[in-house]
Design goal:
The protein has 585 residues and is an alpha/beta fold. The longest helix has 23 residues, at 251-273.
């Protein structure tokens, strides 16, 4: 290709929606929205910030963090190589750009995700940066605005990436408690762990026109259900019709909508504290201030204090995965019969559903009343189908949420038993707000003023597991697994085919000893030599002893201290804080 041809190619762009050939400068003037069909092209984080904030107001927050490869993940490429390539191609340090700025004269803290960087995936560094931004908003008493664009949690960081859903959620919970506005702007695409946490648990959720959002992606849903998807499935208009977003906004109107919302929040806060709002300051020279913003984005911020980290030794995991999935392995109902006494099951989410994949109710543990909630699979094919293989629907997550809140009001400790491949990936689950249901559970557990003890008894699959596992103490049976994604799913994405699932299982560090070394799990409960399904009575005896040993000390901790310590537990997962390569905290 000649130099002239290359220059000509750079001047034009083809619309992904209508295939029109567009003059690139005209497209940029139209905010990267096709003037022919209205297709909203994806934006990088720097361009998004330039469109939204007042010129000259941008003050980037530090994006310099210690190099993190917490589990030494390797697929066809080592994880550090992928990070290096992403940084070279985007010019960014990570998949999010964080800053303080003003929008229409209103001060805000902002975290803007960039899909170009490893699919905008949520890893430890991204979670840490967004959490710090929320903490800055809390310190400065200003609103938090999040702009999401992500495929979900970052597989290459295993369960530690899953923990970021809780870490960021509890930072948002702190802003709620302080009466500070939180807003998320969904852009295309927003899926997985991001959709099921901070993208949907803010006060207000706006969707940019053309955005898609859901817990499971369309390809996964088609593969699992074998069904064609409805027209416009998971699009912004679909989300609006199903009550999952506050509004759908054209890009040209997005800044104006944010200004109006920020003004209302500022007026309300001023009325509460008895001070009038500060008058809006108009920028004096837009061109000069835009130049200042470009310089600010390019300028490296001062690094935060360094934290060193090391990962544990590799352990073969594929046999453990198969053990965790064994059809004879004890279920939640089995443990309710063998570990607890006097179980009284409670049903319903009070909104029209009673998901059979979640069971819960009041029981006694050594004479003490507790609320027990768990996933229920089954042993036979008929039981598994009837219980949807332990994959909870939104109604199941909302039933669990209702029972947690009842337990808090009654002063009952909560015990959760986790055994699920993941949340229900069906069409109806997406229509009913699966991502928001999981997000609300995670957020509520971070502030629940009663002891919470979680046990991974079989499979701990992704956000569906975390929705019951944000706890004061997390236990794990010896032959259970806990992961951000299934080995088969990871292999299908990062390896040539699903036959690499055993390799993926090893790379994900999903076994109980691995996760205990990483600090995700507090204690491993040994199983008999014949495994849980070979000697369920002995397994129940050991689990009962472990539950009592961990629950009794929590009963003496004041509620406010419980919440504070629980938040500290999950806060430490930012950039694998406190975890070294040997897994010793």
């Amino acid at each position: 290709m000649t130099a002239i041809a290359r220059r000509e190619e750079q001047l034009w762009s083809r619309c992904a929606g209508c295939a029109s050939l567009l003059y690139r400068k005209r497209l940029r003037r139209n905010l990267d929205v096709c003037p022919e069909c209205g297709e909203h092209a994806r934006l990088g984080a720097p361009e998004r910030l330039r469109q939204l904030v007042d010129p000259g107001s941008l003050r980037p927050l530090s994006d310099l963090l210690p190099e993190a490869d917490p589990i030494d993940f390797v697929d066809v490429l080592p994880y550090p190589h992928r990070l290096t390539a992403a940084r070279a191609s985007t010019g960014l340090a990570e998949a999010v750009v964080c800053a303080t700025a003003t929008i229409g004269g209103h001060p805000v803290a902002m975290a803007v995700m960039d899909f170009r960087f490893l699919g905008g995936s949520l890893g430890c560094a991204v979670g840490e940066l967004i959490t710090r931004t929320a903490e800055r908003a809390l310190d400065d008493r200003i609103p938090l605005v999040l702009v999401t664009a992500s495929g979900g949690a970052r597989m290459q960081e295993g369960a530690l990436s899953l923990m970021q859903m809780a870490t960021v959620s509890q930072a948002i919970a702190a802003l709620r408690e302080a009466g500070l506005l939180t807003v998320s702007v969904l852009t295309d695409p927003t899926y997985g762990g991001v959709a099921a946490s901070f993208a949907t648990n803010t006060d207000l959720v706006l969707a940019e026109s053309g955005a898609r959002m859901g817990f499971a992606g369309p390809r996964v849903i088609r593969q699992v259900t074998g069904r064609a998807l409805p027209e416009g499935f998971q699009t912004a208009d679909f989300l609006l019709r199903h009550g999952q977003v506050d509004m759908v906004v054209q890009r040209r109107s997005l800044r104006g909508r944010l200004v109006a919302l920020l003004a209302a929040a500022r007026a309300g806060r001023a009325a509460r504290v008895g001070h009038p709002p500060v008058p809006r300051q108009e920028p004096s020279s837009r061109r000069e201030r835009l130049a200042d913003d470009d310089a600010a984005l390019a300028r490296p911020a001062e690094p935060p204090p360094s934290t060193a980290g090391q990962t544990p030794a590799v352990r073969d995991a594929w046999d453990t995965v198969r053990m965790a999935r064994h059809p004879a392995r004890p279920t939640t109902l089995d443990y309710l019969d063998s570990v607890f006494d006097g179980f009284v099951e409670l049903h319903g989410d009070r909104l029209g559903g009673d998901c059979p994949a979640i069971v819960g109710g009041v029981a006694r543990l050594a004479g003490r009343h507790v609320m027990v909630i768990g996933h229920q699979k089954g042993h036979t094919t008929a039981e598994l189908v009837a219980r949807n293989f332990g994959m909870a629907s939104p109604a199941g997550h909302r039933k669990a949420l209702r029972l947690m809140r009842v337990a808090a009001r009654l002063g009952l400790p909560v015990v959760t038993l986790v055994d699920t491949p993941g949340a229900d990936p069906g069409v109806s689950a997406e229509e009913q707000g699966q991502a928001a249901a999981i997000a609300e559970n995670i957020l509520t557990l971070t502030v629940l003023p009663t002891p919470v003890l979680a046990v991974i008894t079989g499979e701990g699959g992704s956000g569906g597991a975390l929705a019951l596992a944000v706890a004061d103490r997390v236990l794990m049976l010896e032959n259970a697994v806990y992961s951000v994604i299934s080995p088969e799913g990871c292999a299908a994405i990062l390896w040539p085919d699903r036959s690499a699932a055993p390799q993926a299982a090893r790379a994900l560090r999903l076994t109980a000893p691995d996760l205990c070394r990483l600090g995700v799990v507090d204690e491993v409960v040994p199983e008999p030599s014949a495994a849980a399904h070979g000697d369920p009575a002995e397994t129940a005896h050991r689990l009962r002893a472990a539950l009592l040993a961990n629950l009794l000390p929590l009963l003496d901790v004041p509620p406010a201290m419980l919440v504070r310590l629980r938040r500290q537990r999950f806060r430490r997962f930012g950039t694998t804080r406190g975890v070294n390569r040997a897994g010793v905290r």
